[in-house]
Amino acid sequence: MKTAITGATGQLGQLVVNKLKEKGYGESIVALVRSVEKASDLGVEVREANYDKPETLNNALRSVDTLLLISGSEVGKRAVQHKNVIEAAKQNGVQWIIYTSILRADTSTISLAEEHLATETALKNSGIPFTLLRNGWYTENYTGSIQGAIAGGAFIGSAGEGKISSAARADYAEAAVAVLTGEDHQGKTYELAGDEAWTLSDLAAEVSRQTGKNIPYKNLPESDYAAALVSFGLPQELAQAIAGWDVSASQGALFDETQQLSALIGRPTTPLADTVREALQK
User: Fold this and answer.
1) Which end of the chain is more exposed for a tag (fewer CB within 10 A), N or C?
2) Structural domains in the chain plus CATH codes
3) pTM for this structure?
4) Percent of the chain at pLDDT above 70?
5) How far, in Å, CA of 154 to CA of 146, rounded?
């Protein structure tokens, strides 16, 4: 029984591979990656899988029973890329696909949801049994900005007092492993988010507490936040997208209190304070 994992050298993918190895599943893992050279230290079987080259996908999915399809990183190209993977999975007789989607993909106002929803539809049309892991925001999406906020003297954003039910990336990896190694998950959709909801003001307060510095949160109009991100070197299109995600967050798009993630992993999700502490130690 072979279990393939796409994006296995990515941040989430590596965590999943390592957690599966810790549980003794190393022999059955196939890491699907664009660059085989970059995956030499994973310690599992590695196969080339380029989303844009279907011929590599057919080779990559030979003799694979279960596929963890971790959503790609190229926004705007993912619906087509994921469809290529699903088609190759169908041709190779894959028996089960687990897909990392986005929280409430079918109703979310976050622009990223469109591609995720297209992939969910492709899965439904494929006839292959599947499970949807609709992941909320990673806490690291925000703690990655801590050093910049400290340098600039403030956190900035457009999320207002919107509550964000985030969890650590490792929590979502653990959920994927729980599904891969558990039973009775086929056909299910999990809305995954952190137990603890917080605002960007709460994040700023936590960073201030841990650093002993006064780092306030400044809420900006969407256009001003996008302009600030461009001034930091982000491409215009990405800056506008990030600012738009914050506006959706202000309207509750990232809030969830069902606690399906902690139920799946069998423990509380990682507190905000812990992920902030980890970011400050880097």
Assistant:
1) C
2) 3-135 (3.40.50.720), 137-166+194-256+270-282 (3.90.25.10)
3) 0.96
4) 100
5) 9
